[in-house]
Structures are given as C-alpha cells and as structure tokens.
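Worked example 3. Consider a protein that binds zinc ion.
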Amino acid sequence: MRSVRNPPDSSRGRFNLSPAVTTTEDDRLRKIVNHLQESGHRITPQRYSILKVLVESREHPSAEAIYRELGTIFPTMSLATVYKTLALLKQEGEVLELGFSDLGNRYDGNKPYPHPHVICTDCGAVVDPPQFDLEKITREIIRATGFTIMTHRLDFYGLCPACQEKSQHFAPTTDKQGST
Ligand SMILES: [Zn+2]
Ligand SMILES: [Zn+2]
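Given these inputs, the predicted complex is written out as structure tokens:
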C-alpha cells in the first residue's frame, strides 16, 4: 500500500502532504527566493516585497490586501503584478491558494501544503489551527476507499472571538422595530 508520506510522484506531487519542519519567516523567505532564482526567475524589489508580505502575514491575505499593503511603498505597482507573482509562486509550489466563493482567493505563503483552516463567516478572518494529525485520517480514507490521495481541503466555519464579542454588543435590541 502506498504510504501517505510518499506522494505518487514528484512531478504531480506539487502538494507535499507531510508538512515540513516549522521554519522562521526569514528562513522561509530565503527558501522561496532561492527556489525562484534557481528556476530562473528574477527577484525584483516589488516581487521581493510581495514575498515578504506573504511570509510575514498570518492572515492568509488576498491579492488585493497585499496590493493595498504595498501601495505606499510602490505607488506605481499594479494589482496585476501581485497576481502574476502569486501565479508564479503557485506554479512553483511555494504558496497555498484557498478559493472561497464569498471571500475570493486567499493565500498562505508559510505553509504551501494542504492544511486545515478556521474561517470567520463574519469578518473573513482565516486562521491556521494548531497542527494536528491528519495522516491517520488520510491513511484511513485510503484504506476505506482505495483512492490514492493527492491533496485535501478541510475548512471549519464559525465566528472569531472578536466577532463573537461584536455580536454580543450589537445584538438587536428588538425585532419588532419598524413593524406596525
Ligand atoms: Zn470575525
Ligand atoms: Zn494556512
């Protein structure tokens, strides 16, 4: 039986199901830069800043959020530049793209492999829960279905602590308001 630790083959196994050892932001940034340079891509100052924002953010930013954050440093940078850099990172397996029907695409530059997320349905916060063992579940799924597993997606939806507090403060005082 195929082990979860060995994705089918490296050309298709863009997603590494086994999380790498946790690295610091600097290490992670250096690793991405080296990888891009080794595959023949130029690291322009704009591109470097996009990588830095991605790696330093724990908030799974959207392309627009990255663009806004860098707007003051690079007033002439276009949103297309951010999208192109994200597309390149995706192609090189250095970013995890999360598509949401209501939140658009969000990006994780720290953990470019599949991992669970906790999502606030009110403010759109996307958070990484503490690491827990998905390998056992994956092995069980492989055993029970006979599938080979390439990737997975596990999302938990709810209200973040800030939005829970907000909803307590601004709870509707009456539902009769406006009705006669
Ligand atoms: Zn929230
Ligand atoms: Zn994440």
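Take a moment to read the result before moving on. DSSP finds six helices and five strands in the chain. Residues 25-167 form a domain with the Arc Repressor Mutant, subunit A fold (CATH 1.10.10.10).
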